Amino acid sequence: GDSVTQMEGPVTLSEEAFLTINCTYTATGYPSLFWYVQYPGEGLQLLLKATKADDKGSNKGFEATYRKETTSFHLEKGSVQVSDSAVYFCALRKRAAGNKLTFGGGTRVLVKP
Amino acid sequence: NAGVTQTPKFQVLKTGQSMTLQCAQDMNHNSMYWYRQDPGMGLRLIYYSASEGTTDKGEVPNGYNVSRLNKREFSLRLESAAPSQTSVYFCASSEVPGNTEAFFGQGTRLTVV
Prior knowledge:
The complex is a heterodimer of chains A (113) and B (113).
Chain A (H helix, E strand, L loop, with lengths): L2 E4 L4 E4 L4 E3 L1 E4 L5 E7 L5 E7 L5 E4 L2 E4 L9 E3 L8 E8 L7 E3 L3 E6 L1
Parallel strand pairs in A: 2-12
Antiparallel strand pairs in A: 1-4, 3-9, 5-6, 5-10, 7-8, 8-9, 10-11, 10-12
Chain B lengths: L3 E4 L2 E4 L5 E7 L5 E7 L5 E7 L6 E2 L6 E5 L5 E5 L8 E8 L7 E3 L3 E5 L1
Parallel strand pairs in B: 2-11
Antiparallel strand pairs in B: 1-3, 3-8, 4-5, 4-9, 5-6, 7-8, 9-10, 9-11
């Protein structure tokens, strides 16, 4: 079945450091790929998405590129802030089978001042 | 603009008790989902409803039942709660096709003692 694997956390960084969270997927067909973010005590919210190979999603300084050849969708940010401390989830979704999202295990990121 | 509303936000149950988690969305979405979130395991799909009148099992359906009451509402029932069902439960909704985002509720923190 479909699956998403992302690097385990926690990831601890200093403010203004570069952030990378690795995400790889296994799926048949052509899934859409998403990054969701969960701030403390809140539900998940969409951070960015890419719907086909070589698409780049971007939002709030975060970027991720859909790489079909390596089945990856790594999340990057050039200069993190304390407010970026959260749990980040990589996910895939396909048109078939109810359009349901399949999530990775989540990566907790802690940014220290 | 309420989005996805879940009730209750917190609940403590004794083993063997039953309860229903409520979820409602006001975005006229066709698809609705119930996930559980456990530490280190990301979000796992319990049940989903691709459209009004249909429900299907997800990854971890045992011990749960669902009802798609109408297009807006999708409830999750625990008939006989067990400590293994201690978790945070999220309801989500989305429109088709599969490249659109899913919107999440704030979550229900359930503890079974």
